[in-house]
Specification:
- The strands form four sheets. Strands 1-2-3-7-6 form a five-stranded antiparallel sheet, with helices on both faces. Strands 8-10-11 form a three-stranded antiparallel sheet.
- The protein is globular and about 60 Å long.
- It contains 14 helices and twelve strands.
- The protein folds into two domains: 108 residues, Phosphorylase Kinase, domain 1 (2-Layer Sandwich); 281 residues, Aminoglycoside phosphotransferase (APH), C-terminal lobe (Aminoglycoside 3'-phosphotransferase, Chain: A, domain 2), CATH 3.90.1200.
- By secondary structure, it is an alpha+beta fold.
- Its EC number is 2.7.1.100.
- Keywords: ATP-binding, Kinase, Nucleotide-binding, Transferase.
């Protein structure tokens, strides 16, 4: 009788046994190595490797609470959503996600391609590495996974069935709390403010009632706009990258929501990388890195728009979606949502519970104060002025304090 017929949270030793029993990748007498490599907020991620053959696999398991806090009680079935979404995204955007080998509904885990020859984009950006192909790769992923899962392309009953299939209430609740509520109303006392910036944040974020109203509008947009199958957590920690390739991982937050949520997360986290590089001593700044980040922000928005309209022309099936001017109007709403989410993500990562290393690793107190304020001032404008933001240069201009005319 297998020990894996009843769910339990596995240790590294358990994962070695599991890999031998469940996968046909390894010889029965293989001396496997296993290390927990996950540093995320929710799940446990292990790398299993046979040093003799260099064959390896990633095994990811869900616990019944979030690693970030035991306050978040979660269904362990979220790995099922992640596995299914990765397989779907692999069909929609070939090569842009890791291969999934199988999903185990008893142990609530999945096995997938090991990307050890890639690096996590967040850490690479903190180290000021540049990736010239990133904007092209990520915009292809975004257009293909978002537009092609929307009513514009899918038969409407099929799309509604997908909405039902990918309902994800527990993970959505985390987003609703941490992104759209607690940075403005710290109802559970979980916010963590950088103490030298506390009074400024309390005045500029907690005390800005106009900002709160706009955040409330955005929250209900997020909860009620089942536009496309979104990744739901597409920050730079959810991207593995090499100079020649980009892979998106960790779509456990996936559900049917507004397209701009994914795009805005990408932009916000690129801006965090800019803020980190800008904050360190000039002698440690890599030549051209800040300019490359700025260019990439512009390219992500503008390439997304170009590819989106091209894909719309090629793939739209709804007869009303083909009405003259509708695609342009629809895209303008997506970019407006993107601007708002960019601001919301920047605020929640500085004010809320779940931080980003780009900001927290800034050692100089005055530089961190400045970096946080740069992000938060821009975030407020992106949210409040989102209806006026249309192009990549508009995003960059707001972030750098200049309004494009």
């Amino acid at each position: 009788m297998s020990k894996f017929e009843t769910y339990f949270l596995m240790s590294s030793a358990d994962v070695v046994e599991y890999a031998k029993e469940k996968l046909d990748l390894f010889a029965t007498d293989a001396k496997l190595e296993c290390a927990e490599i996950g540093d995320g907020n929710l799940n446990y991620v292990f790398r299993v490797r046979d040093p003799k053959t260099d064959t390896s696999v990633i095994i990811k398991q869900a616990g019944d609470t979030a690693r970030i806090s035991d306050d978040f009680k979660l269904s362990t079935e979220r790995i099922k959503i992640e596995s299914e979404v990765l397989q779907l995204e692999g069909k929609l955007a070939p090569g842009r996600v890791p291969d999934v080998y199988f999903y185990d509904g008893v142990m609530n885990c999945c096995a997938m391609e090991d990307l050890s020859d890639y690096v996590i984009l967040r850490q690479a950006l903190i180290e000021q590495q540049q990736f010239p192909l990133f904007a092209d790769h990520i915009t292809t992923f975004l257009v293909n996974t978002l537009l092609l899962t929307s009513d514009v392309v899918l038969e409407h009953k099929q799309k509604k069935q997908m909405v039902k299939k990918y309902i994800n209430p527990e993970l959505c609740e985390i987003t609703e709390d941490l992104v759209y509520t607690e940075p403005y109303q710290d109802v559970r006392g979980r916010n963590e403010l950088f103490s030298p910036n506390r009074e400024w944040i309390e005045r500029e974020i907690y005390g800005d009632t106009e900002l709160h109203l706009e955040a409330a509008k955005c929250k209900f947009q997020f909860m009620n706009h089942a536009q496309a199958l979104i990744h739901g957590d597409l920050h730079t920690g959810s991207v593995f990258i090499r100079l020649d390739d980009t892979k998106v991982i960790d779509p456990e937050f996936a559900f049917y929501g507004p397209m701009g949520y994914d795009i805005g997360n990408v932009i916000a986290n690129l801006l965090f990388a800019w803020a980190h590089a800008n904050a360190i001593d000039e002698s440690r700044q890599q030549p051209g890195f800040l300019a490359w980040i700025e260019q990439t922000v512009v390219e992500v928005i503008d390439q997304f728009k170009e590819k989106f309209l091209k894909s719309w022309q090629e793939n739209a099936t709804d007869v009303m979606a083909k009405e003259s001017g509708f695609a342009t109007w629809y895209l303008s709403q997506v970019i407006e949502d993107t601007a708002a989410v960019t601001g919301l993500e920047m605020i929640r990562r500085i004010v809320g519970l779940a931080k980003v290393k780009d900001i927290t690793s800034i050692e100089d107190v005055e530089q961190r104060i400045n970096a946080e304020r740069i992000c938060l001032i821009a975030a407020k404008r992106l949210i409040k002025e989102r209806a006026t933001i249309r192009s990549g240069i508009d995003f960059l201009s707001v972030f750098k304090g200049r309004v494009s005319q």
